[in-house]
Amino acid sequence: MKIDVVFSGGGVKSFAFLGALQSMKAKNLELERVAGTSAGAIVAGLLAANYSLNELNDTIYNVKLNEFMDPPRLSKVIPLSKWYYLYYKLGFNKGDRLEEWIYNRLAAKKVYTFRDIKPGYLRIVVSDLSLGKLVVIPDDLERVYGIDPDHFSIAKAIRMSAGYPYFFMPKRIAGKTAKKSIVVDGGLLSNYPLWIFDKPNERNIRPVLGIKLSDDVENTEPKKIKNVVDMSHAMFTTMKQAHDIRYVSTSHQKNTIFIPIKHVETTNFHIDDNVKKRLIELGEKSATDFLASWP
């Protein structure tokens, strides 16, 4: 059966997607359109570039996550300078290595811009802080920025969506005015864009299945807030989840694979192979349990 799939954000937790995809393949589910936010956008982009499941497993499992940490050289020599970059550049890491890795993986399939994939088969969510709005790429490029999607780099779009605030420096994109927009992680405004293939007053052509790297919305654990750092983290998490929790709780739980990942931080780029394997196994089990009674 052909389906459309939406991948949530979740940083390094996204290894669980590999297990879920294995379970979906065992159920003979064939992916057509794909969409994602943040780390989910990376997986969606590779699938849209026609990576097979085996190729995807090899590519993602073997990636050296710590190589994506690329702070400016000065911050390595003078550690305190990292606060200068945070204040003026809005992040600790440049994110250039991440974008280069994505570019090279797509280039291996001769995919560079949205012209190189089927129209409508890939959608990526980003957050435009300058304009204060959620943007879906490539759909909104022409309307919001006056940019032709045929000439817009998919690697850049994915890098923008995966630009976790403060951890990575935000990307800037030229628009219809002289001032460039600051664009960050799509998860800030929609970490689980299950709505992305919906059309008003129309039924979906195919079933839409979502994969969310968290527990069921009814089982969300309360956050422990003891200081201003905890409060800041809780505020950011709440902003990411508020819209999606309301949407999923009211309409689409029946089409969502929840993968209850605990004790793995989104930006822990030092996880070892044992953690990766546990994430993959959890993803496969969660999907298998769900698909036993779906659709």
Short overview:
The chain contains 10 helices and 10 strands.
Q: Which stretches are poorly predicted, pLDDT < 50 over at least 5 residues?
A: none
Compute the gyration radius: what is it?
18 Å
**Which bin fits the share of residues in helices?**
25-40%
Q: Got a strand count?
A: 10
Distance between the termini: 10 Å
Q: Per DSSP, what share of the residues sits in E-state strands of 2 or more residues?
A: 15-25%
Mean pLDDT: 89
Sheet/helix structural class: alpha/beta
Q: How many helix segments?
A: 10
Shape: globular
Helix-strand sequence: EHEHHHHEHEEHHEEEEHEH
Question: Would you mind describing this structure in some detail?
Answer:
There is one protein chain. With 295 residues, the protein is of the alpha/beta class. The chain has helices at residues 15-26, 39-48, 53-61, 73-77, 82-89, 96-107, 141-145, 154-161, 228-252, 273-291; strands at 2-7, 30-37, 91-93, 122-128, 133-137, 166-168, 171-173, 181-185, 208-212, 256-258. The strands form two sheets. Strands 1, 2, 4, 5, 7, 8, 9 and 10 form an eight-stranded mixed beta sheet that branches. Strands 3-6 form a two-stranded parallel ribbon. Helix 1 (15-26) packs antiparallel against helix 3, helix 1 packs parallel to helix 10 (273-291) and helix 6 (96-107) packs across helix 8 (154-161). The radius of gyration is 18 Å and the shape is globular. It starts with a strand and ends with a helix. The mean pLDDT is 89.
